[in-house]
Specification:
237 residues, alpha/beta, 8 strands, 43% helix, 16% strand, globular, binds pyridoxal-5'-phosphate
Length: 237
């Protein structure tokens, strides 16, 4: 999908893609016996211009996801007039956690203690409360971020007891080479264990453009969808 320059054409393109994604989600909910209101669509706008976020807001999108700390900060500043919730979904360097805590409403990618500590300090310094998900590595491969399974419970405890942070649940990306349905059912089991200790941790962030149906079937509460709404991104550097 090429991005048209004409704002009217672009808005109609986004409207149509959004309604396709919403219909897919509704069908998946139906098949799983779930209500569509249980599932929040986070539209991942990384690499796309802020004008797209303006269009999305006009089309009723509330939750947007950004992967990079600086890009997110710039876009938040240019959208301060809009009622948006900002989700940080990418891997974060510890030294950038303070900057992230200034704009992110929800951080999906907490995967280590030092990052959590820095996020907490940043949240307090900017007088904010940041919602945090533990990113879980389902295959133990650190390449895409995520805490190994045996560290998840302790990390959840750390987040829950860190002033300025609020533990809200778990997140995962389906590992390459694993069936998404299998990955997301493993995540559901992790989510259940975290909830046993922390009843407030109700969020399960799972599912992207290609596997949102499997995520809904496994109980995802948040889908992170980029390509299916905005088009394919140029490859990241
Ligand atoms: C980019 C990204 C997404 C969106 O992926 P699409 O395949 O474009 O829907 C979701 N989650 C994370 C962590 C991402 O980095």
């Amino acid at each position: 999908m090429t991005v048209p320059q004409d704002p009217f054409v672009r808005r109609e393109q986004l409207r149509s893609a959004l309604s396709t994604v919403r219909a897919r989600t509704a069908r998946a909910c139906d098949a799983a016996g779930r209500r569509p209101e249980e599932v929040t669509l986070v539209v991942v706008t990384k690499t796309y211009p802020v004008t797209d976020i303006h269009h999305l807001a006009a089309l009723g999108v509330v939750d947007v996801g950004e992967a990079r700390v600086g890009e997110g900060a710039d876009k938040v500043a240019q959208c301060s007039h809009l009622p948006l919730r900002w989700h940080a979904i990418g891997q974060v360097q510890t030294k950038k956690a303070g900057a992230l805590a200034r704009w992110a409403d929800v951080v999906h990618s907490a995967d280590r203690r030092r990052l959590v500590d820095s996020l907490g300090r940043g949240a307090l310094a900017s007088d904010r409360c940041v919602e945090v998900l533990v990113q879980v590595s389902l295959d133990g491969d650190p390449g895409r971020g995520g805490a190994p399974l045996h560290e998840v419970a302790a990390l959840a405890d750390t987040i829950a007891s860190t002033p300025g942070l609020c533990l809200r649940g778990v997140m995962a990306i389906a590992p390459l080479g694993v069936e998404p349905a299998q990955a997301f059912s493993e995540l559901a089991a992790v989510a259940q264990r975290v909830r046993a200790d922390h009843p407030e941790a109700q969020v399960v962030s799972a599912g992207m453009s290609a596997d949102l149906e499997e995520a809904v079937a496994c109980g995802a509460t948040h889908l992170r969808v980029g390509t299916a709404v905005l088009g394919s991104r140029p490859p990241l550097r």
